[in-house]
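User: Fold both of these, please.

Assistant: Here is the first one.
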Amino acid sequence: MKIVVTGSLGNISRPLAEALVGQGHAVTVVSSDDGKRGPIEKLGATAAIGSISDVGFLTETFKGADAVYAMIPLSFTEPDLAEYLRRMAQNYAQALKSAGTKRVVLMSGWAADLVKAENAEHYFDGLKASLTIMRPGSFYTNFYQSMDLIKGKGFIGKFLTFRYSGIWALLTGKTGVLMGNCGGDDRIVFVSPKDIADAVAEELVLMPKEKTIRYVGSEEMTCNQAAKIIGTAVGKPWLKWVLLSDKEMLNGLKMAKVPEKLAETLVEMQAAMHSGKTLENFHCNQPKMGKTKLSEFAKEFATAYHATQH
């Protein structure tokens, strides 16, 4: 099959491209960075260098493809996340329609149907294509975005530098905490990008007649259990994940100079997880869990953590 993978060589797209090439598919990887051309070709794939904001580029890239994996990278330079997601989703939908793509696998999020700004899924409903929407849980790799915070860096006033994972960290002596308006004993489904890539690879070669939604997870646990696993791996077994109120989280984001609309969206996303509605939806769909445990990822995280401990 001829398969187009968007997302450059990111946490999901790289292992996905590797898997597809290994299965004998003709793979094209889309990246906005010309510097990725060499690494993409080294994988045995073809590089398509351009922006997903360019409908013409996307259309030409999708022409002749049997299947497309579509993802919209989150941007935190955009003051209005909802408008950005809407614009990128419309670009994809127009290009896929013009190219006549028959199979589309769309990356979304497990709170997409609960958070207005994050739900760009419906822009793909009008496609005359077999569509599967992937709704993964909270990425293991989000912890990388909080590495400096876990080390006790990045203070802004009484709050700390914002990271996409929604995790705030504070270390004072031997006291370590992660903070968010989802935390403490809230139960979360965490997921390895490798397990997501495996699931996407499975879906791309299928052709369901109706739109399908697939939830993806690797391990379910409380936020505090996750904090302990990560903390133990880096030599800080006392690490805790403290639950903040929505108001406290919003004020912290504003103090960190996150644009107001974006801050409100991020608080809403975590509030959906805190409410338990995301977990309820996940259980209702009864997905098969991936094979990568958080303890395995924690070893990789610890290696990176200690490599920058200077």
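And the second sequence with its predicted structure:
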Amino acid sequence: MNALLWKVAVEKFVLWMISMERSQQTIDGYQKDLKMIGNYLAKRYNTQVFIEDITTEDLESYLYMLKEEKGYQASSRNRHLHTMRSFFNFCIKKEYLTRSPAAAIEKVRVQQKERDFLSDEEADTLIENIDHELIQFVVKVLNMTGLRISECLNLTLHDVDLENKRIHVRHGKGNKDRFVPINNHLAPMLENYKSHTRVRTQSNYFFATKKTGRLSPVYVNRVLGETVEKLGWERKITAHTFRHSFASRLSRRATLGDVQKILGHSNVKTTSIYLHSTYDQLEEAINTL
């Protein structure tokens, strides 16, 4: 078994992910984490490291550094641990290693937080106060479809099928495609936007801009943050909050399996966290017994 430098092993891992058609988002995330880990190990050993020389103690030290020096929350540290496990499992599968130094490290227990969501009135108020016309419409679409912001902004003209009233989400999370129905209230809005409001541009993106051809998720979230501040709300609201809000509303009207399909979750456990109720709803339910 030939000794393999960390950098070389990471390059092989990335090529393998590409060959397995992992989403670009997944590949970018793994590369970012592995680069951070590699830099830490090189600094710790004062040289480029071979994967066979990496110990469990090295990886535990790295995770401790993320907590104490960088202030990473438990969920973020668990993500780095997941990256480590995936990488070293790949190395074992390819027979670059015989054991994984990450195998003995346990995940940090993460306290499950209640998902933040907006009531119908709050969502309407926030949307009405967005000054940017295109972003205002994008947020309306997020609120009525449950799309992830990246999925929404990556839609092309071909993906929004107004004739059959459905949106084709291509290469969503986990590199999976799915179709999301367009409800009867949203359909005429999309038609009007496409026919009358959308800027004239060579860009094929549905939500196109004249200057760059498309919106960025960072820009949308920045405008949302500014709107929340303008309203004087003491809350952190992002584009993803509207996905939570949509899921919360849908879960009261559809089966868990239907919600899972529309949101594009691979695991029903992920969907189940959206089945929350307000305290008033719980109180009302108890009083009916």
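The beta strands are 160-161, 166-169, 178-181.
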